[in-house]
Amino acid sequence: MLSAEAAARARRAARIWSPTTA
User: Is the entire prediction scored with pTM above 0.85?
Assistant: First the structure.
């Protein structure tokens, strides 16, 4: 499912973007 892959990628991106934006 693309949703599962997209969610996994979004989670990894959020991990790097979370501290950057915050």
Answer: no
